[in-house]
Write a structure and sequence with these properties.
single chain; three-stranded antiparallel beta sheet; 12 strands; 17% helix; globular; binds zinc ion
């Protein structure tokens, strides 16, 4: 396990659901999960994610901060994406548009008497809408991590796009690059975008001098699946 920098080339930007970037450990876990799901399907077995159960710890090719046996707030040594914010004079949001329409056939699952007049594309309250989607116009995202470069490269080959709205072509990744950064100390590589800038959610035990270069202290999850409350703890939010 060595200090690494991972770069995604994203020529069209990326759409996010949170104010900070996508977590590298979450991306790697999603690939492992999908590979297992496909292997189970090929073997004729049923294999689904159960949100109600405590998630199993997947064997990610990353070092750990904290001992899973003794520290409930342990996490993988990897940052969220550094979005490389534009200078202050160029903060124009990049608004994309997508359409949304009410599906009459699906509504008829709820009530069979919904006719074509009640749900029209062009009139009334259920008509087709154009909705805005905010994109982050970065052409390059970077992460830091402490891990096994070859295993990480292998998992990234299964990620042609990242972020939200991938199904309509957002978040395209044209190139992944994993480079070794032997000059970066392991702790920095596992927690910060650059020295002094916290790049992931981190419990207070991680930080000697919290407050400078961190986001606010609050409740947050610290490892994938990030939407599951199992790893919810008190943590500093990323600085960006
Ligand atoms: Zn830590």
């Amino acid at each position: 396990m060595i200090a690494l920098q991972i770069t995604a080339t994203t020529p069209h930007g990326v759409v996010l659901s949170r104010p900070w970037g996508v977590a590298l450990d979450g991306l790697l876990a999603s690939v492992l999960w999908h590979r297992r799901k496909w292997a189970a399907r090929a073997a004729g077995e049923n294999f689904t994610y159960q949100h109600s159960q405590t998630p199993e710890t997947l064997d990610l090719p990353l070092a750990r901060c904290g001992d899973p046996e003794h520290e409930a707030d342990w996490h993988w040594m990897a940052t969220f994406a550094d979005l490389h914010p534009h200078p202050q004079d160029a903060t124009e949001p990049d608004i994309r548009w997508r359409s949304s329409r009410t599906d009459r056939t699906r509504l008829q699952h709820l009530s069979p008497v919904i006719g074509s007049q009640a749900v029209s594309d062009s009139t009334g309250r259920y008509q087709r809408r154009i909705v805005p989607v905010m994109a982050h116009p970065a052409t390059r995202l970077t992460w830091r991590a402490v891990g096994d470069p070859d295993r990480i490269r292998d998992l990234l080959t299964d990620l042609p796009s990242i972020g939200k709205h991938r199904g309509v072509g957002e978040g395209l990744v044209t190139h992944w690059e994993v480079s070794e950064t032997p000059d970066v100390p392991d702790w920095v590589a596992g927690h910060e975008h650059e020295p002094g800038v916290l790049g992931r959610t981190a419990p207070p035990r991680c930080l000697d001098h919290p407050g400078r270069g961190t986001g606010p202290l609050g409740a947050a999850t610290v490892r994938p699946p990030y939407l599951h409350p199992a790893s919810r703890t008190t943590a500093y939010h990323p600085a960006r």
